[in-house]
Every structure is written in C-alpha cells, then in structure tokens.
Amino acid sequence: MTITPEQIDVWRTARSEAQNLEFKEAKTQFDNTKLNKYCVALANEGGGFLVLGISNKPPRRVVGSAAFNDPVAMAAKLFKAVGFRVEIEEVQHPDGRVVVFHIPSRPKGTAYHFEGSYLMRSGEELVPMSEDQLRKIFAEGQPSWLDEIAKKDLSGQDVIQLLDTQTFFDLLNLPYPTDQLGVLQRLESEKLIYSVNGNYGILNIGAVLLAKNLRNFEGVQRKAARVVVYEKDSKSQTESDITGEKGYAVGFKGLVQYVMGKLPQNEVIENAIRKAVKLVPEVVIRELLANALIHQDYEFIGMSPVVEIYSDRVEISNPGKPIVPVERFIDGYQSRNERLADLMRRFGICEEKSSGIDRVIETAEILQLPAPNFLVEHQRTVVVIFGPREFRAMDRSDRVRACYQHCVLQWVLRKKMTNQSLRDRFGLSERSGNTISQIISEAVQQELVKNDPSAPDSRKYARYIPAWA
C-alpha cells in the first residue's frame, strides 16, 4: 500500500500505539540493530508499520527524519539480517520527511528471531517471547485441545445421555427440537460433536461445556473446577475441598451459587439496620469465574481452574500465563479460546469482550473495596479479591494499585483521573487531598500513570492518564 500524508495524520491521532504501529523520532539516524529487533517483534505480533520521524508521545508531532536516505539499500540489508522482506517508503509530509517500514506478518506456525532471540514488544521495551507464547505459535495450524476428540463411536442416544442438551437449548433460548436428529444436528452445527457414517463423536469443547458428568470423559475430567475453603487466612487448615462434576456451561450457575454459599459474611449497618453481606459481591465472583474458565490454557494437562476461599479474600486461578499483560486486563482483550468464549457469551455466562474485568474494577470502586490484584505465577494466572478493608488499613501497594486501576477505568470511560475522583474512589473527604496527592505521586514514580499533557499546567487542575496511553 502507498502511505499518504493524510494516512500519517490518521495514525497520529491514535490514542496509543496500536499492536501494528510503532512510532520513533529518529530525526537524524536510527540504530540498525534496534531496527532489526523492531522488525522481528512487529512481524511476530502480526505485522504492521514502524514509522520514523514522528514523536512516539502524544500529540505525536511530525519532526522529520533524515534516517535511511537509501531505502533500497537498507531493505536489502534488512532482508539479510532478519530473513524476510520489509518494504521501506518515504512520505513527504508537510511537516517533514517520514520513513515507513511495511513489516509483514510471520507465517502461521512460525516465529522470527534475531540473533537467537524471539522478540515482542512490551510497552517501550523489546522483550523475549515466553516459552508459553512460542509453544502456542508453533502449535498453530494443529488441532487445539478443545477440538480434539473426547469420546467416539457413539450412537445418537449415547450423545444425549452424556451431554445436558436440554440446558444447552435453554441457555440459547431455543425451543428443544421435537426429535433426536434435530438435537444432534444443532450440536454438530456448533462443532461440539461430529458424525461419521451414522456414528457420533463428542469433541473436548462439547464435553467441557455440556457434560452431565465430566468423569465420563477420561481426558476432560481433570478440567473440572475445584473449590477449596480454608478456615482462616492461610492454607494451614482446610474446611472443604470439592471438585465439580458438570460441564462449565451447564454447571456455571451452580458453581457460582456454591462459591457464594461458602463465602464468609460480614455484618454492616445500613440505614440504621444491621445486615449480613458476603465477603465479595456475586457479580465479581461471576465475572472472574467466567474469565478463569474461558481464558485458561487448555493445553496444560491435569490442571484446572481453582477457587480458594479464605477468611479475608478469594483467589481464583487458571492454568497458563495470560496473553494480555496483567496491567492491560482492564482495557485490553485477546482470547486464546475465541470459539469457546463466543459460546459462553451466547449462553449469557460472560459479557461482551473485555467488559467483565471493567465491571469487577467498577464494583470494587463503588463498594470501596481494596483493588483486585492480578498476578502471574508459575504456569498460572491468579486474581486475588479482597474483602472490605478501611483505607487506613490498606498498605502502600494496595493504594497505588487502586490508583492505577482507577486511572485506567477512567480512561476506558473516556474520562481522566483527578485528585477528587481518586478521593471519591476511596470514600475520603477533601481534607485527604494531600494523602491522595502522595498516592498519585507514587504511581507516577512507578511509571504507572502520568500527567495528562492536555490538562492545564496547574496542580489544582491536574489530570492523569495511564502511563502507556
């Protein structure tokens, strides 16, 4: 494609550098080794454009670049260095010369490396891809675990007996077919089962979603969700340890109800009336359970989503490391299991893309709970949801984490964080303005948030946006 000055201006208006865009000033030159690495990283992320001569910070002024004044020779050097062809285009923008590198996507099932390092971008940094990410790439084009066969050589009646087809149609708000063939055809159209010469087979995705009892599927039963309840705030004493039996879709409502029934209760006074409330709201449990079930890495055999309930918190974990950085859970979305996610949305179990985490954060703010903590541990993704805790009982990390999440949530809602909005989030009065300023300063120092460059140059009217925006 030919890039025009108008296209350059469209790119400049992007709120943040997109997955397929990278801006660099490079007024006079750009390091060749860094160029090679950026080309490899962008190719590994699906291809895109490296644009020189534009500031990478808003408002992204065109500063012009004198780098690579012989694009043909540079393209030949790049091909020799990285092993794939990159087109280089000069664009004469009214404000200066812009150099655009057209970087192709890597072939399916392949990742590029430079000097042995398989690279990707993380914020402003170039980092090696994780083993988990590489394994996923190299497995592309091969059947995923969800598409493998759970049970084969079945009759139509066997399928009906093994899967909860009635709940399947109820969840889709569809009338139950009048004959068995209609049921089987609908399941097959959703690619949950298959048929060969009059016999049927159930795929793993069909079993994991609709099984009446997961124990009937040897290769799937270890995916059943597990709920562990501890007596206090540590693992020293276990009250109960139960593993579910139903498929995720047909058993989701019961799973949520079971977890809610096991949560500790707190007494609060509301409108002069004492009432008992659960440690964590149901909407939070529901959204995070759905996320754990949907976004787990199904390639990890013998590992399942786990809910751990303590006296002061709930921890929900799932196998695999996230493919979206935890600091971008609120505004970002990418599912490793899109077909399963689509079915769960149609079943009404989860919300539209990325809105679930937004709702969790917003609920925590409304109820003035400590900010959830999203963690990546060994081969697992964990979210910790805390019960009620007064502001003075929150430590520095609690407060800074809440500040960052509030800032991102405001950004998603097309608003900006201010001292007042963060005070409201914590339920503090105007007298706590200095305390809030200290929290914001700490978040700025940790490069989590930054001053909004479009705000007035006044501490009183300062606004803040995420550091990556």
Automatic annotation (TrEMBL):
PANTHER family: GLPR-RELATED TRANSCRIPTIONAL REPRESSOR (PTHR30595), SCHLAFEN ALBA-2 DOMAIN-CONTAINING PROTEIN (PTHR30595:SF6). Residues 17-129 form the Schlafen AlbA-2 domain. This is Predicted transcriptional regulator, contains HTH domain. It comes from the Bacteria. Pfam families: HATPase_c_4, SLFN_AlbA_2.
